[in-house]
Structures are given as structure tokens and as C-alpha cells.
Specification:
The complex is a heterotrimer of chains A (362), B (507) and C (355).
Chain A lengths: L10 H16 L3 H19 L6 H26 L7 H17 L4 H25 L4 H20 L9 H8 L11 H17 L1 H11 L1 H6 L4 H26 L11 H11 L11 H20 L5 H34 L7 H9 L3
Chain B lengths: L11 E10 L2 E11 L4 E5 L6 H9 L6 E6 L2 E2 L5 H6 L2 E4 L11 H6 L13 H15 L14 H14 L4 E5 L7 H16 L3 E5 L3 H7 L2 E6 L2 E7 L5 H9 L3 H4 L10 E10 L3 E9 L3 E6 L5 H9 L6 E6 L2 E2 L5 H7 L1 E4 L3 H5 L6 H5 L8 E2 L2 E2 L1 H15 L15 H13 L5 E5 L7 H16 L3 E5 L3 H7 L2 E6 L2 E7 L5 H16 L1
Parallel strand pairs in B: 3-8, 3-9, 6-7, 7-8, 13-20, 13-21, 16-19, 19-20
Antiparallel strand pairs in B: 1-2, 1-4, 4-5, 9-10, 11-12, 11-14, 14-15, 17-18, 21-22
Helix pairs in contact in B: 4-5, 14-15
Chain C lengths: L25 H10 L2 H18 L6 H26 L7 H18 L5 H26 L3 H20 L4 E2 L5 H5 L4 E2 L2 E2 H19 L1 H11 L1 H7 L3 H26 L2 E2 L7 H11 L11 H20 L6 H35 L1
Antiparallel strand pairs in C: 1-4, 2-3
Helix pairs in contact in C: 1-14, 2-13, 3-8, 3-9, 3-11, 3-12, 3-13, 4-5, 4-6, 4-11, 5-6, 5-11, 8-9, 9-10, 9-11, 12-13, 12-14, 13-14
The chains are: A mainly alpha (362), B alpha/beta (507), C mainly alpha (355).
Chain lengths: 362, 507, 355
């Protein structure tokens, strides 16, 4: 393959390249597309659904969306680096279970919270170790740990639920900033978002993630410690997952083994919808945030519009499928258009070839 | 120019086929004519478009234009299956076996012999495979899985597969690159046998002795275009080489004499079980040392080990007197080594990232202030080096995939120059690059040596090696078999050292 | 277990059967041993059964065995189907939702047409499954996107459709003809009828994968998809058929589910995909494609269900079950990986000596 490509380079070629580049600049990118869709959905929902455009809505929507939003940040980095983590929701569940059991056993709540974060670190490190040190595929590993961590949550807490967390804490987790309707915890969530955005887009580490998502070999050749980077990425994901477990437990004031079950799907759907390539190496966090909010708003809007909960599964699933199928359809259409152009009115790049076809017989 | 054939006479003919990938023209005029009962050589430098042509014949690529006939009938293959169905069989440069399947099944996949029950008869399949291997004279167990077979064994299985297909046209894309002398002889015997039975064979090789020994006609390609076709016995190697290169060698390789300084790289006793052994050499400041040899001789593996990509079992690598930790590219880079890898698209660049980000990927830590990279500084650094190397791009922000091959290679080199290396390893620096830019890359490398950088160059192109190198090391089967100073390096001596033991085995 | 007498699959490194061994190199024997993953899994199953039986003598009484087989039946069929897909280097995570749809569909069929012939119900269920599998297959092959993502999406969509369709409705065994439920209670020579159906399915699919050309193509595709394309194997079509076949088998499992279990509703089959993938992986079907066997997956399924029953039999908390499934998945992929690293190192060195 490599020999086949990149043979002739002429000024004409560079010029055509430049033209297509200018065109591309004005075409909406994948993440811009998501942001526009989000705006459209918000406007349509505000106009058509009564009670949608209100601080109450903003508050509940954000409270609902926070777990997805938090997890989408490290997940975006993981997928950009060419891996995947299906175990995030189970890690959150395990954290919740341990939190419940320890608190019910009379431990100090702050100690419990500390231990929860450690649980996240350990869970992430287990994934990271298996994936980087043993070189196992992250898909298989995290399907395994998805079952394992959820299973451990069951082992820890069984089918019990722990509810009586300190009222001050649970109240804090549902409180709003003044009259804005914005939950107070959003401040913490913003910190996480900024942390991962800076990490991905403005640090050497982030540059490395793009490189190794595109090709591990290419990353190795510029001295990126691939295993090292991936390991810490999974640890980071584990920590955020444990924070989600804590949030979930305190927001609903209930520690159960099945907390946050299945949200890994929504997280992945949101990340891919936000323009991150499932093949790694491509993506940006603004798009991901828009993807999360798009799914959240759609779900919330549909619920307000009295569309039954069951339809929400279909919406999330369809968005996920759409977000991965759309780029293929898009590039297929582009390729077709290019071929047609080549055949019809732009014979120049192949001028010589056409001449030789017609003149060899002469 | 070519003698034109009436379509009826040839078993396969392709005239004026063009193929481009995006903005890149891989094949501008692919023309070949194969008659029944002949062995036809296709020669050309790397990047001349041979592989693209082969893939068109195989049905892997569909040509954008051109006239393609098999046995006089116009064809347009949509898949390799269609090509195979009309009797075109292809052995690729790189074997394409299924690692999890057995050897026998690899030969017969898709057309396994069936027993009376209509089910696959493994016994029959095994028997036929054994027969094929007996005919080829190789002792390969048909029941073992293909995973872990040596390249040579894999190539033999590909050949067995092609033979068993009884093809009208057999295309062999450098089938001998990894074979030993005996195996090559046997392959030639088989090829002649097929020819005598009326098959048309297209044979692609870089080894002129083979081309002249085996083939009836020779077609030359250059820069994606058909150049000429000759009866083999009417031409000389010199004439063919001139047509392949298209200009005088001297003009191609503007080697500038540079003062040679102290030893920069010292490799002693480097070994990795099963890959290479007892590798000892040094490279001095300002010196270009070429690592030559056949594909698969272990050249790239040695370079990768020096740069720390792969581990090694024994030996030491010293840079300017300091011993390097093994298996750590970080250590190698810190010590002042840069490496321009073999596969630009997979190893050299991150194709989706911008030119600026690619060019500064090696500097990412130096560019950061308080841990944060500033876009302005990044672009400035990238700008500086692209200017020096004259990278042609509309903007530093364009994805590097939009550049041409030559300019991409300059970005890779820029990336390393930015680290101010003492030693630059370049692996096949001009592979897939058109001729104009090729000489630019050569001038660049020569320049760098002039600035006192030690250069270790791996190249499969003999003219490149002969034109550029101050010293040539030749590898064969994981060992260095010759060390030739510039004055003593000739194509014949290098080829001899690269195949020396093969010749002995053949006798 | 009569497994040891079965011929080994060629895909897992065809063993040189006694007479036919020719110029065997060491590597061949070694890789055959390592790749015959079914043997250690089967041994683990035997050990598990023996230990459990020693601790709890009730475990192996006729009723216990019957329950064990009944519980395993549906998972066995689904694992067999899933292994077809995994061998092509894909995966189908939507099978739990597909099973739910078909099972609920079966319930509603009997509800709407109480006198419908059972054979027709089976056919409709399998066609329904085929359509759903076909949707997955088309999306995967047309969009060229990892099957994981597509089937994660259809897992949601199919489940959503089932939710919308079923709402709060549940159909109970009482709504279905006795002869239909009898399939899960009547036995022939000690085996429940639905288990015999499962065994038949496994044997049929195993023969297809072992000795039919298009079955062998699936191994080639999973082993190296690019080489398969280059070779002219119709990769997209084969992968599509693998998904359809998996759909058919899942549909069959769905109908049998309705026969075996009392109620079918909106949550039927929820989360089952995890056990199915686990069964296949534990049974030696490599998640990276190209190797593994259908009966390996079946043994994996039997092992997983036996663990659940064994936990109950030895009175270990049932909550451990899922954690053990997770551990088994991890253990299997680790064992495979370590074996392949060793094999690669050995081969590298031994090839070098040959030179």
C-alpha cells in the first residue's frame, strides 16, 4: 500500500489540495454539527414544550446529565487514545456499594469518601495493568471488569440499600446556585471538565494521546511512553467513575449495587456523537460536551413532552448508531462525488493517462 | 517504444491504466502485455507504480481509466474473486496467509476438496498439500498453523497456492526477496514448467540476475508510467537501469564531501535471538553509513533496537561515549538520536494532526510552559523548521495527510532536526517519493552530514546507497557480512555480500 | 463427558491424528496443545461438578442434572451463535434484547392465536431473530464500524422497542399450550427435549464451521480480514450471514425461553449478552477472532451455568455469581495472552535455529 501512494507531487497537486482545504474550512466539522444540533434541539424544545425553558428544567436536566458529563471527559480521552472502557458504570456501582456498607457500619463519612476514591484508583489500575502490562485488548478486559466490579458490588452490599446519609451532604448535592437553577455541584463538574480539556488540548500528555490513538508505532517513535500514558488514563477514568458513584449515591440518597447500571452506553454514545472517532486519534472536548447535553436535553425534553420513558432507549441507541454510521455515509458520498468529478469535468490530473490511452494505437 | 500486440495474441493486456488515491496519482499510465507461454519481467524503482499495477491486475484496485483485457475480453474486476475466477493468480510481495489456519487450509481456502458427504475432506486436502510441497521439494507440515512460519516458508506456501490454482496468468510480486538460493532455483523450475504449459507469468524483481536468467521480455516502469518493453536477450542491464532511473546517477545523488569527525555511535556485539547477532559497527560525525542488504536481512530490526523501539538480548549501544539504556526510545532521544522510520504513514506521522503539531511532536515537552503548550510557540517552532526544509503546505494547520509524500517525509525529518540530534537514523528515506523530491531529500541528508550529524541510512535502492554513503555495511540473515568504504563499494560487491551465503547454498 | 473422542477442529490447530503425522515440527505439537482450549475448560467443568457433588450429594441426582441442563440450554444455543460472530472478529451485544423481543413475541403469538402450530411459532421466532441479526449485520458491514458500537446501539434500540411493545404486559406459561411447555419438562433418555435441541444445534453448527467452505471462510476473515479481502473472500457477505445466523439461533433461544420460563415481558433477557460473550470467551473463542470452536463455546456456557448451580448447591452467597463470571472472562483472556506470548517467543527462537 505504502508504495502505491504518494508518487507524483507537482504544483498542480498542491493547488488542488489547497482548494479542498479551503472548502473544508467552511464546511461544518463533526463537533460543530453536534453543537448546532444541540442549539436546534434546545430552541425547538423551548418553543414547543411548556415549562421547558425554566430554571427548574435547567436544574433537573443538569442533575440528570452530570454523571454522563463527568464520565464522558475521561472516556473521550480513552477513546481518542484508541481504547475503550466499558467498566465505568460498574466502578461507580462498586463505589456506591462500598460507600453504603462502610457508612452503615458507622465509619466517618469523610473517611468513607476517601476510600471511595481509592476504590476508583484501584479499579482503574486493574484495567490499566491488564491492558498495558499484559497487552490485552481493552474491549475484552473491560467487559470482564464490567462484570467483575458489578459482581463485587453485589457481593459487598447484596440486594440491600443504604439510605440515611448525612442530610447536609445529600442536600448539598441537590442544591442550586441561587435562582439560576444550576446545581452547586456543577462547580466541581466544571473543574473536572476544565482539567480534562486542558490535559487533552494543551499539554504534552494530550498531544501524545492523539499520536498513540492514531498509531502506537508513531507514538513510540517520538518517545511517547505508550503503556505509561494509557495506564494513567485508565486510573483517571476510575477516579472519575468513583466520583460519579459518590454523586449518584448522595443525589438519590441511596447506595445500591445496581446504581448507574448501563450508563456506560450513554457515555460512549455521547462521546461518539461529539465527534470523537471510535478508531482513535480524532476528537475534541467541546463536541463531546455538546454530545452529552444533546442526549440529555433530548431525553429530558421527550420526558417533559410526555413521551414514555421507553422511547428514551431508542433515542440513545439510535443516536449512537447514527453517530458512527454517519461519518461512513458522509465519506462514502464524498468519495462518490469525487469520482464523478474525476470522470466528468476534471480530466487534468490524468491528462497524460488519457492521452496515452488514445494515442498508443496511433 | 513497445511493440503493440493485437489483443488476441496476449493472455492479459492492460493499456494506459490510471489510478489515483485522493490527490495522489499512484499510476499514470499502467501498460503491460503478457502472452501465453512467456515469463515477463516488470522492473522499476520503488514507487514506480508496480504494486499499484499488480493490485489492478488482482482486482484489488479498480483503475480510474484504461483498457484491461484478459484473453482478449474487456474486463473490469470489482473484487479479487472476479480476477481469480478468470484465471489471474497473484503472489504478493508480503505473504497474506491466515495465521490461525493450518498450512493446508491456507492453500485451499475457499476451494477445499470435498469428500463424498459434501463436507471438506481434510485427508484429501492434506494429501494434495503434501503433493504440492513434494513438487516444490520443501518439508513443510501441512497440519501446522501458519502463525510463526518464517517469511520464506510463507512465500513458499503462497507459491504452492498459486500453482494449485492452475492459473492462466501468474503474477509474482518480488517472490524471491526472502528465499534462499535453492528455493529460488526450485521456484524458477516451477515457473518454467508453468510457462511451458502455456501460462503467462509476470515476474517482478529487483534482482537483475534473476530477471535476465528467467524472463523472455522486460517491461520498464518509471514514476507511475510505462516506459518500454524489450526482448530480454536484446538488452543489457545498463540499458534497463538507465530507463528505470531516467537520468544519470551523478545528478540524482548530490553527495557533498563532509569532514568526518569523532565517533558518535558505537554498536558492539548487539544481538537478539532469532533476529540478528553480533552486530558491531560505528558511525562518525559527518559520516553517512548505509546499512544495505536484502529485505528481511535484519537491517530495520537493528535500527529499531538501537533506537530502543525493540529490546535486544546482548551487546551495547554507545552514543558519544555514553552507554544507552536498551528498549527505551526516550533514552535514545534524550541522548541525541532521531529516527525517520520505514513506514511514514504508520510510524513517522500522525496523519490526522496538523503539520505544526506533527513537526513539534518531538518538542512537545520543551514547548510547554508550566506544563501547558502554547499554540503560538508551537507554530513558530514548526514554521522555523518547515522553512529550512522548504515544506510545501498551504498552512501549518492543515492535516499532514493533505501533503504529498515528499513533503510528508520532510515533516518527519523536520521533527527530528528540531531536537538537534547527533545521530539521525533514516530507514528507506525516499520510499514512495517522486523523483524530484527524492533528490531534495538526498541533498538534505547530505547537508545534515555536512553539519556534523552522523547518519545511519537503511536503503534497498542500490543507486541511493552507492551515491550517498561514505561507508556501506551489508547485512545478510541477521549478520553483517561486509563493510565497504565508498571507494570499494560497487553494486556487484554489495549484492554478493547480501546474498553470499545464498550462492554457496545454491551450489 | 465424551468430548475426548471428538476430532479436534482444524481451526484450532488441527492435530496430527496418529497415522497422518508426517514431518511434524515441535512447534506444531506445541501450538496444537496450547490451542486446544476446549480441553482445560472441559476439565475445569468436570472438576467443578465432582467437587460440588462431593460437598452436596443432591447435586447430581436426576432432578439436579435435569435442572442443570435446562438452565444451560438457552445459554448454549446463544453462545454457539455468538461464537460464529466472534470468530469473524466481530461481536453481537444486542442478543439479550433480541432474545427478549423473540420471547415476548412468542408469548403474544400464543396469546393471539392459541391454536397456532408450535412449528410455526419456532419458524416465526427464528425468522424474527434473523431479521434483527440482519439489521446488525447490515449496519456493521455497510458502515465498517466496530460491531461493538453498532450492537451496543441496537441493544438499546431493540430493548426500547420491546419496552414500547410490551409496556407492562407479561405473558405467563398458563397462556401457552401445555405441549409447548412440555418441551422443557419432558425428557428423552434423561435429557430434556429443549436440551436435545440445543445439542443438535451445536453439532450442526460445529460441522458447518469445521467442514463447510463458507464456515472455514469465517475463520479466515477473523484471522486476517485484510488478507481475506485480498484473497477474494466475500468478507461483507460472510460477516452479514454470521450475524443473521446468530440472529436465527438467538431467535430459537427466545422461543425456547418462552417454553422454559414462566413469564416473558419487557425485561426478558436483560443483561444476558454479558453471559453469552463470557461463555464464548471462556470456551476458548478468541475475542480477536480467527480461532475457537462452537462446542468450546457450548462447554463455556455449561461451565458458567454450572458455577451458578454449584454456588447454590454448596450454599455460597448467590451474589458471587457475577463476580465469578467477570473473573473467568479475565482469566481466559489472560491465559490466552500468556500462551501466545510464550508461543511467539519460542517460535522466534526455534525458527532462528532452523536457519
Amino acid at each position: 500500500m505504502s508504495e502505491a501512494l504518494g508518487t507524483t507531487e507537482t504544483t498542480r497537486d498542491t493547488k488542488t489540495t489547497r482548494n479542498t482545504e479551503t472548502v473544508r474550512k467552511y464546511l461544518p466539522g463533526r463537533d460543530a454539527l453536534t453543537i448546532y444540533s444541540l442549539l436546534v434541539v434546545v430552541i425547538v424544545a423551548s418553543a414547543t414544550i411548556p415549562r421547558f425553558a425554566s430554571p427548574v428544567t435547567v436544574g433537573f436536566l443538569l442533575l440528570d446529565v452530570i454523571p454522563i458529563l463527568m464520565l464522558a471527559m475521561p472516556m473521550a480521552l480513552v477513546i481518542i487514545s484508541g481504547e475503550i472502557d466499558l467498566s465505568v458504570a460498574s466502578t461507580a456501582g462498586l463505589t456506591s456499594a462500598i460507600m453504603g456498607v462502610l457508612y452503615a457500619a458507622g465509619w466517618d463519612i469523610w473517611t468513607v469518601l476517601g476510600i471511595c476514591v481509592i476504590v476508583g484508583i484501584v479499579a482503574g489500575a486493574v484495567n490499566g495493568f491488564l491492558i498495558t502490562t499484559l497487552g490485552l485488548p481493552s474491549l475484552a478486559v473491560t467487559i470482564g471488569t464490567l462484570a467483575l466490579f458489578r459482581g463485587l458490588a453485589l457481593v459487598v452490599i447484596g440486594d440491600n440499600a443504604v439510605a440515611n446519609f448525612p442530610p447536609g451532604l445529600t442536600k448539598f448535592f441537590t442544591s442550586k446556585i441561587g435562582a439560576t437553577g444550576i446545581p452547586t455541584v456543577m462547580i466541581g463538574v466544571l473543574v473536572i471538565i476544565v482539567f480534562f480539556a486542558v490535559l487533552l488540548h494543551f499539554t504534552p500528555f494530550g498531544r501524545g494521546l492523539f499520536a498513540l490513538g492514531y498509531s502506537t508505532e508513531a507514538a513510540t517513535f517520538v518517545g511517547i511512553r505508550v503503556g505509561h500514558a494509557k495506564f494513567w488514563l485508565f486510573v483517571g477514568t476510575g477516579v472519575v467513575a468513583s466520583l460519579v458513584g459518590i454523586y449518584w449515591t448522595l443525589r438519590y440518597s441511596s447506595a445500591r449495587s445496581d446504581n448507574a447500571t448501563g450508563i456506560e452506553l450513554t457515555v460512549i454514545a455521547a462521546v461518539l456523537l461529539g465527534g470523537v472517532s471510535i478508531f482513535g486519534g480524532k476528537g475534541a472536548l467541546p463536541g463531546v460536551i455538546a454530545g452529552v447535553l444533546l442526549i440529555g436535553t433530548l431525553n429530558y425534553g421527550l420526558r417533559l413532552a410526555k413521551i414514555p420513558d421507553v422511547a428514551l432507549n431508542i433515542v440513545t441507541g439510535s443516536l449512537l448508531v447514527l453517530s458512527v454510521v454517519a461519518p461512513s455515509v458522509f465519506s462514502w458520498a464524498k468519495e462518490r462525488a469525487r469520482r464523478r468529478r474525476l470522470r466528468s469535468h476534471d480530466p487534468r490530473p490524468r491528462a497524460s493517462a488519457t492521452t496515452s490511452t488514445t494515442t498508443t494505437s496511433a | 517504444m513497445a511493440e503493440q500486440q493485437a489483443p488476441g495474441e496476449s493472455v492479459l493486456s492492460l493499456v494506459g491504466a490510471a489510478k489515483s488515491f485522493g490527490p495522489v496519482v499512484a499510476l499514470a499510465d499502467g501498460t503491460i502485455d503478457i502472452r501465453p507461454g512467456e515469463i515477463h519481467a516488470l522492473v522499476g524503482e520503488n514507487g514506480a507504480g508496480k504494486s499499484t499495477l499488480v493490485k489492478i491486475l488482482a482486482g484489488v484496485h479498480q483503475p480510474d481509466s484504461g483498457d484491461f483485457r484478459v484473453a482478449g475480453e474487456l474486463v473490469s474486476f470489482k473484487s479479487p474473486a472476479e480476477s481469480k475466477a478468470v484465471g489471474v493468480s497473484v503472489i504478493y510481495q508480503e505473504p497474506t496467509l491466515f495465521p490461525d489456519l493450518t498450512v493446508a487450509e491456507n492453500i485451499f481456502i475457499g476451494r477445499q476438496p470435498k469428500g463424498r458427504s459434501g463436507l471438506i475432506s481434510r485427508r484429501e486436502m492434506r494429501r494434495q498439500a503434501r503433493e504440492l510441497f513434494a513438487r516444490l521439494g520443501v518439508p513443510i507440515d501441512p497440519d501446522r498453523v501458519a502463525e510463526g512460519l518464517s517469511i520464506a516458508d510463507q512465500q513458499i506456501i503462497e507459491i504452492a497456492k498459486a500453482i494449485s490454482l492452475d492459473a492462466k496468468v501468474l503474477v509474482m510480486d518480488e517472490p524471491t526477496a526472502a528465499l534462499s538460493g535453492v528455493e529460488v532455483e526450485r521456484l524458477f523450475g516451477v515457473a518454467r514448467g508453468l510457462r511451458d504449459k502455456g501460462a503467462g507469468i509476470l515476474f517482478i524483481s529487483h534482482r537483475f540476475d534473476e530477471v535476465f536468467d528467467l524472463t523472455d521480455r522486460i517491461t520498464v516502469m518509471r514514476d507511475g508510467r510505462y516506459i518500454s518493453t524489450h526482448d530480454t536477450h536484446t538488452v543489457t542491464i545498463d540499458e534497463i537501469v538507465r530507463e528505470m532511473v531516467g537520468r544519470e546517477l551523478g545528478a540524482l545523488f548530490p553527495k557533498v564531501e563532509a569532514p568526518i569527525g569523532d565517533t558518535v555511535l558505537k554498536v558492539s556485539g548487539l544481538a537478539r535471538a532469532g533476529v540478528f547477532s553480533n552486530i558491531t559497527f560505528d558511525v562518525k560525525a559527518g559520516e553517512i553509513v548505509a546499512l544495505s542488504g536484502l529485505v528481511g536481512a535484519g537491517r530495520t530490526e537493528v535500527a529499531r533496537a538501537i533506537f530502543g523501539i525493540d529490546p535486544y538480548d546482548r551487546g551495547t549501544v554507545t552514543l558519544s561515549g555514553r552507554t544507552l539504556a536498551g528498549h527505551s526510545p526516550q533514552a535514545a532521544i534524550a541522548a541525541g538520536i532521531g529516527m525517520v522510520p520505514e513506514d511514514r504513514r504508520k510510524q513517522g506521522l500522525v496523519m490526522d494532526l496538523s503539520v505544526a503539531k506533527n513537526a513539534t511532536l518531538t518538542l512537545r515537552k520543551k514547548l510547554a510552559r508550566f506544563g501547558l503548550i502554547s499554540g503560538k510557540r508551537e507554530r513558530a517552532a514548526a514554521e522555523e523548521w518547515s522553512k529550512v526544509l522548504q515544506v510545501k503546505t498551504g498552512s501549518q494547520d492543515y492535516a499532514v495527510s493533505t501533503l504529498s509524500g515528499g513533503n510528508q517525509q520532510k515533516v518527519v525529518i523536520a521533527k527530528w532536526l528540531a531536537t538537534e540530534p547527533k545521530l539521525l537514523i533514516v530507514d528507506e528515506p525516499t520510499r514512495g517519493i517522486d523523483v524530484g523530491t527524492k533528490s531534495e531529500v538526498h541533498r538534505l541528508i547530505s547537508d545534515l552530514a555536512g553539519r556534523g550529524i552522523a547518519i545511519l541510512m537503511i536503503s534497498s535502492e542500490l543507486p541511493e546507497v552507492l551515491g550517498m554513503a561514505d561507508r556501506v555495511l551489508v547485512m545478510h540473515e541477521g549478520r553483517i557480512t561486509a563493510e565497504l568504504p565508498r571507494s570499494e563499494a560497487t553494486a556487484e560487491r554489495i549484492m554478493l555480500a547480501a546474498t553470499a551465503t545464498l550462492e554457496e547454498a545454491a551450489r | 463427558m465424551t468430548l475426548s473422542t471428538k476430532p479436534n477442529p482444524a481451526g484450532a490447530g488441527a492435530p496430527a491424528r496418529s497415522g497422518a503425522a508426517a514431518t511434524d515440527r515441535n512447534a506444531s505439537a506445541f501450538s496444537t496443545f496450547v490451542r486446544a482450549r476446549e480441553i482445560p475448560v472441559a476439565s475445569a467443568l468436570v472438576v467443578l461438578v465432582v467437587i460440588t457433588a462431593v460437598i452436596n450429594s443432591q447435586f447430581l441426582n436426576p432432578q439436579g442434572v435435569k435442572d442443570l441442563l435446562l438452565n444451560a440450554t438457552i445459554l448454549i444455543i446463544m453462545a454457539a451463535g455468538q461464537s460464529l460472530v466472534i470468530i469473524t472478529r466481530n461481536v453481537d451485544l444486542s442478543v439479550g434484547s433480541v432474545l427478549g423481543l423473540v420471547a415476548f413475541g412468542t408469548g403474544s403469538l400464543f396469546n393471539a392465536f392459541p391454536n397456532i402450530p408450535i412449528v410455526v411459532v419456532f419458524l416465526i421466532g427464528m425468522v424474527f431473530g434473523a431479521v434483527l441479526g440482519g439489521i446488525n449485520g447490515l449496519l456493521v458491514t455497510a458502515a465498517k464500524v466496530p460491531a461493538l458500537v453498532i450492537t451496543l446501539g441496537t441493544l438499546y434500540i431493540f430493548r426500547g422497542v420491546l419496552n414500547a411493545w410490551a409496556g407492562g404486559t407479561q405473558y405467563f406459561a398458563g397462556d401457552r399450550p401445555v405441549s409447548f411447555s412440555d418441551l422443557s419438562t419432558e425428557t428423552v433418555i434423561g435429557f430434556p427435549i429443549i436440551t436435545l435441541i440445543a445439542v443438535f444445534v451445536v453439532v450442526a453448527v460445529a460441522i458447518f464451521m469445521h467442514a463447510v467452505r463458507s464456515g472455514r471462510d469465517l475463520y479466515a476473515i477473523g484471522s486476517d480480514p485484510d488478507a481475506a479481502l485480498l484473497f477474494g473472500i466475500p468478507v461483507s457477505r460472510r460477516v452479514l450471514y454470521a450475524f443473521v445466523a446468530n440472529g436465527v439461533l438467538t431467535g430459537l433461544a427466545g422461543v425456547l425461553y418462552a417454553s422454559r420460563f414462566n413469564s416473558v415481558g419487557a425485561t426478558t433477557g436483560d443483561g444476558l449478552e454479558l453471559n453469552v460473550v463470557a461463555a464464548a470467551v471462556v470456551g476458548g473463542v478468541a475475542i480477536a477472532g480467527g480461532s475457537g470452536t462452537v462446542y468450546g463455546a457450548a462447554i463455556g456456557a455449561l461451565l458458567l451455568t454450572t458455577i451458578t448451580s454449584a454456588l447454590t448447591a454448596v450454599r455460597v452467597d448467590k451474589f458471587w455469581q457475577q463476580a465469578i463470571v467477570g473473573l473467568l472472562i479475565l482469566a481466559s483472556i489472560i491465559v490466552d495472552r500468556v500462551a501466545s506470548i510464550r508461543r511467539a517467543r519460542k517460535l522466534r527462537v526455534s525458527e532462528a535455529r532452523d536457519v
